[in-house]
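Q: Here's a chain of 188 amino acids. Please give me its 3D structure as tokens.
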Amino acid sequence: MAFTRMDEGRVEQWVEIGRQVAARQTRMPQVIKSMLLRLGEQMDGFAIDQLQHGLQTATRAYRAGAAEELIVAALCHDIGKVISVENHPAIAAEILKPYVSRDTYEIVRTHQDFQGRHYYALMGKDPNARRQYENEAWYDLACRFTDEWDQTSFDPAYETLPLDFFEPMIDRVFTKGFIPVQEMEAKL
């Protein structure tokens, strides 16, 4: 049934591809949880591993009354480190993009520049890199995200909620926003 060139695909082939992609998409929460667990292998010189860091960040967001998608974004904001530390914010943001608002996407995408306020000067970088975003509607929330939740979340003694507490949130956020196969078929 598969074609060897996209320009040769027939409607019924695209419907089948859509069915298979939709089936795989339902497993996205498990993929995200697997990536989060891999962060547990990364200490990177900190007092806690990167999974615990994400859990602490999400716990702080939850306790501050943040919206569910922002809590999940706090949990997943460093998930890109599974692939690359250097450009992890962009990777994490692109993973989240189909599932969250533009503001939440931008907060994750730019969180490194916002965190830079706390350590960029030590590395010879501009600690005020966040200023380039100060006219954005999400700027104040990004400051809160990094200053109150993210940069404070490296404490082995902090009472952190476990991953299973956040799993229902992960399930809800990472299963929304996709067109069911039946709708796709009706459009074709």
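Q: Can you summarize the key feature?
A: Residues 99 and 177 are 6 Å apart (CA to CA).
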